[in-house]
Design a protein that fits this description.
The complex is a heterodimer of chains A (about 210) and B (about 180). Chain A has helices spanning about 1-25, 35-45, 85-100, 120-130, 145-155, 195-210, and strands at about 55, 60-65, 70-75, 110-115, 140-145, 160-165, 170, 175-180, 185-190. With about 210 residues, chain A is an alpha+beta fold. Chain A has two domains: about 1-30; about 50-210, Glutaredoxin (3-Layer(aba) Sandwich). In chain A, the strands form two sheets. In chain A, strands 2-1-5-4-3-8-9 form a seven-stranded mixed sheet. Chain B contains nine helices and no strands. Chain B is mostly helical. Chain B has one domain (about 5-185). Chain B is globular and about 45 Å long. The chains are: A alpha+beta (about 210), B mainly alpha (about 180). The interface of A and B includes residues 4 and 26 of A.
């Protein structure tokens, strides 16, 4: 009888330990993958977009602060990508089409940033942008030529890029929204186009009414 | 060299940074070789603890249930996609892996297994068959990249590894059900 009681006590302790372990390990049963945890952290931290120099598909070079006072809708890609990136950019173009035209240029800019600056020259980016009917002005595609600056941005925004040694990269994908102060305010699921477009439109509407 | 020290040396060997790094560079080796070997190290070392603290195990794990519960919990924890990523990114999690798998999974597994009744053993086999099948399915057919540190192709490989394990347990259970070992002794 006593033996059984001890066993019950031990089993209870083990169970409590297990619950605590899983609770701590998943941020309170909220994040079972590192990606969810990363997005949750970003939303809490709201990091600033670091000062980097961009070179776009028109060959123009400018600092990120060029977009001051505008929202910037960002994706990260590389043009040789055959898997996720085309889908990511296609979805981005759908979001672009869903947002009312009057906001573009003045209140919001779309920006696709390549993390493969070696191959994604302005010429390559220019060809790539045409495939997605990006106009190169209200939706720009750009690379960050300085690897150090690029790394600081990827690090700050939690974009993990792993080269596979054969010219391809594995990377996590999302829509990123940076506010007019250069602060990351949202990370959205890139597969939910309508949700993202609604959210951005709502934010722009609030902004212009103020 | 007795088995306890063998287990200890195995743990030390696995913890040598170049060895650990090499094994963790491939997803399926990380999960289906390094982690089981850590548990094996614990199983070997369990003898030392059983001899040293016989009363503790007798008192708190008399029927083997608390121990096997601890084993299942720790196993389950390390099957979360997130923990594998964090073991690579956060040092504390990596250290916890090298402590929890041998001492909180390997040691209790050995102490509990012999104490469990056949029904208890079968419950564990069936439970892990189901878990491995589900986790394998998830890794193979997930459209998303579940682990940020590994390629999707590695994720699919790992998924098949899980399904193979589940299949192996099913084969074993059939074998155990339909053969009588005493005939061959």
């Amino acid at each position: 009888m006593i033996k059984n009681r001890n066993s019950r006590i031990a089993a209870t302790i083990v169970l409590v330990f297990g619950i605590i372990l899983f609770y701590v390990g998943t941020d309170g049963f909220k994040a079972y993958t590192a990606e969810t945890a990363r997005v949750n952290d970003l939303l809490q931290e709201k990091p600033m977009f670091p000062e980097v120099t961009l070179e776009d598909s028109n060959g123009h070079t400018y600092p990120f602060s060029e977009f001051k006072d505008k929202y910037v809708f960002i994706t990260f890609l590389y043009t040789s990508c055959a898997t996720v990136c085309p889908k990511l950019e296609l979805n981005m173009s759908q979001v672009y089409d869903l947002i009312p035209k009057e906001y573009f240029g003045k209140d919001i800019v779309f920006l696709s940033i390549s993390f493969d600056p070696e191959r994604d020259t302005p010429e390559t980016l220019n060809r790539y942008k045409d495939a997605f009917h990006s106009d190169g002005v209200t939706w720009r595609m750009a690379r960050i030529p300085n690897q150090k600056e690029l790394n600081s941005l990827l690090d700050e925004f939690g974009v993990i890029v792993i080269p596979d040694g054969q010219g391809n990269f594995t990377h996590n994908s999302a829509f990123y929204l940076v506010n007019p102060n250069g602060q990351l305010i949202d990370v959205m699921d890139y597969t939910k186009v309508n949700e993202a477009a609604d959210k951005v439109t709502r934010i722009l509407k609030n902004e212009t009414e103020e | 060299m007795n088995q306890s020290s063998l287990g200890f040396y195995l743990l030390i060997f696995l913890a040598i940074p170049p060895v650990a790094h090499l094994m963790e560079s491939v997803m399926i080796i990380h999960m289906h070789m390094q982690m089981p070997m850590l548990i094996i190290a614990g199983v070997l070392m369990a003898r030392f603890f059983q001899l040293r603290f016989p009363k503790f195990f007798e008192k708190w794990n008399s029927d083997g249930i608390p121990g096997i519960l601890l084993f299942v919990i720790v196993m389950g924890y390390w099957m979360l996609p997130r923990t594998m990523d964090e073991a690579l990114e956060i040092q504390a999690v990596e250290i916890f892996k090298f402590i929890s798998l041998p001492f909180l999974a390997g040691v209790p597994l050995r102490d509990s297994w012999k104490k469990l009744k056949p029904i208890g053993k079968n419950v564990i086999f069936v439970l892990f068959t189901i878990i491995f099948a589900i986790v394998g399915w998830m890794y193979i057919f997930s459209d998303d990249q579940i682990c940020n540190n590994y390629l999707v192709i590695e994720q699919i490989t790992l998924g098949w590894g899980f399904l193979t394990m589940a299949l192996s347990i099913i084969i074993y259970l059939f074998y155990a059900t339909f053969t009588d070992p005493s005939k061959y002794e």
